[in-house]
C-alpha cells in the first residue's frame, strides 16, 4: 500500500497567513543559495519542502513519494530540467503544479512547451509572487478557502549558502577544464550571482558563457571570473 507521501496532500489547515499548508514542495535546484530562498518561502507559506540537487536525485525522490508541487531548475549538473518537466507533465496521475525556474527567461518558452504550468524567474525572493505562482495553478479542490492575503515580504537567504555555492564553483573550475564543465560552471555562477544581486560577478560569468557559446577566446574572461570568486571567498574567510 502506498504511503501518504505517494499522494498529493489535500490543502488542509491552510489560512491567509499560511496558504500552502498541507502541500509538499520538491525543489530541484543545484544552488544552495537559491534552495535556501525557496526553503524560507515554503516555511513562511506553511508548505513542507524537500530538495534534490540533480536529475538523478530528483528521480530517486519521485520514486518514493509524490509531492504537490515540483520546482525544476532548467540548468542542472547532469542534464536539462526540461527533460524532467516533460516526463512529469506526461505522467499519470500528474503532479498538480509543475514550475520551471531559471535566471534566463529566454528558456521559459521551451519550459512551457515541455509542459510546465508556470515559471519562476530568479531571484526567487518575493513571498507574494511565490505563493501566487502555486495557488493560481492548484486545482479547485486544493485551493484554500476564503480571501488570500498578499504579503509584501522579501526573503533574504543566509550568506553562508552563497559562499558555499562560490566555493563549489571554485572547486569545479580548479578541478576540470573540459567544455561541458566550464559551460555548466559559467551558467551556474551567473544564476547564483543574480540571485545574490552580485552584479559584477553576474556580468563576468555571463560574458564567459557568451564567449564560450560563440567559440571565442575566453582565457581573460575565465581569469576574471576566477579572480572575482577568490576575492569573495577571501573576504568571507576574513570575517
TrEMBL record:
Residues 24-137 form the Response regulatory domain. Gene3D superfamilies: 3.40.50.2300. Keywords: Phosphoprotein. Pfam families: Response_reg (PF00072). Signal peptide: none annotated. This is Response regulator. The modification 4-aspartylphosphate is found at residue 73. SMART domains: REC.
Amino acid at each position: 500500500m502506498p504511503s501518504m507521501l505517494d499522494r498529493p496532500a489535500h490543502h488542509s489547515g491552510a489560512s491567509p497567513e499560511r496558504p500552502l499548508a498541507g502541500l509538499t514542495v520538491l525543489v530541484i535546484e543545484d544552488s544552495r543559495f537559491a534552495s535556501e530562498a525557496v526553503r524560507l518561502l515554503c516555511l513562511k507559506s506553511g508548505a513542507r519542502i524537500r530538495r534534490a540537487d540533480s536529475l538523478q536525485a530528483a528521480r530517486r525522490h519521485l520514486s518514493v513519494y509524490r509531492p504537490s508541487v515540483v520546482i525544476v531548475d532548467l540548468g542542472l549538473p547532469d542534464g536539462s530540467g526540461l527533460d524532467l518537466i516533460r516526463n512529469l507533465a506526461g505522467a499519470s496521475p500528474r503532479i498538480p503544479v509543475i514550475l520551471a525556474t531559471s535566471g534566463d527567461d529566454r528558456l521559459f518558452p521551451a519550459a512551457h512547451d515541455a509542459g510546465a504550468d508556470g515559471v519562476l524567474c530568479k531571484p526567487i525572493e518575493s513571498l507574494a509572487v511565490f505563493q501566487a505562482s502555486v495557488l493560481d495553478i492548484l486545482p479547485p479542490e486544493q485551493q484554500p478557502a476564503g480571501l488570500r492575503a498578499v504579503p509584501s515580504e522579501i526573503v533574504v537567504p543566509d550568506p553562508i549558502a552563497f559562499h558555499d555555492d562560490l566555493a563549489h564553483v571554485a572547486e569545479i573550475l580548479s578541478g576540470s577544464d573540459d567544455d561541458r564543465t566550464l559551460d555548466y560552471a559559467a551558467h551556474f555562477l551567473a544564476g547564483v550571482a543574480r540571485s545574490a544581486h552580485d552584479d559584477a560577478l553576474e556580468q563576468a560569468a555571463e560574458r564567459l558563457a557568451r564567449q564560450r557559446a560563440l567559440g571565442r577566446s575566453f582565457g581573460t574572461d575565465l581569469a576574471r571570473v576566477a579572480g572575482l570568486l577568490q576575492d569573495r571567498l577571501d573576504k568571507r574567510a576574513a570575517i
